[in-house]
Amino acid sequence: MVITHHGGQCFKVTFGDLTLVFDPISKNGTLPAVRFGADIALVSRGHPDMNGVEEVTYGEKDPFAITGPGEYERQGVVIQGFLSGSTYGLAKGQESAVNTLYSIELEDMTLVHLGALADAELSKEARESIDEIDVLFVPVGGKGVLSPDDAHKLAVSLEPKVIIPMHWSGLGEPKALEAFLKESGNGSEKVDKLTLKKKDLVGRDGSILVVTP
Length: 213
Known about the structure:
This protein is 12% helix and 33% strand. The chain has 213 residues and is mainly beta.
């Protein structure tokens, strides 16, 4: 599979002819809207920075949109969505918002995207349902999502093979990524796209890979 970062929390995952996107940016978002076709679109938070399903309806692609908790299967991809909380981009008078974190199984790998998560702990249901995590996408920006410190603590506790920080490019507090990397202290690697197979995860234990947009 190939993972590319499109700013904020938006990641495109391609494998074979199938394209999956997490949190596509809409034309009303803070960041420039995405513009590519996807087969499956997963939206963690009902906010323009993360719910641009129309922007990935492109060419011959009309995505199967998943916008909340539940169990789904599409084109051989098994997806579970779990309820959690966010305080990102709240409307006036709103104290919290629904965030959905997603666990995806494909190519013998488990990807977990935490969305705009503000909760420092996952729910009991999510903890019990998610087994070994191969790739964890974790928000690190603060301002309504996990702070760099809380993001690091949660990421380490989940024991993924690979950690990909998000919500630092165009969103979040200045220098949030640097703060997160400082917390980790064990080095990181920057790539402009991540090509990954199951065998590439052998020997990895919480490796931090910064996928640059």
